[in-house]
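We modelled the chain as a single entity of 100 amino acids. Its sequence is:
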Amino acid sequence: MTTPPATIRVTQAHIDAGQPRNCGSCPVALAVTEACKDVPGFGWAAAELDWLLLLGGNGEPGLLFKARTPPEAEQFMNRFDSYEDVDPLEFTVTWQAVES
């Protein structure tokens, strides 16, 4: 199962609050969390160089979605993790359900 495309907006507030080299607290993960916070069962987001992940809340099994990290988001994360200046970013992803 896949979802309709979703727009993820990484704002300056996400950049300011983000932590380099932290897949759960980087600006992209914070933006994914904000974009998905109203999804039923949503608990946590992670941003890695190859995959973006949505995980179920409270350790409950069953909700796991992933999306391929777009190249522009990957470049953003590499720069942020290297303590380089980054600008707000917008990108689109399509989430795919993963069996858990």
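As a brief sanity check on the tokenised model: The CA atoms of residues 4 and 94 lie 6 Å apart. Residues 6-97 form one domain.
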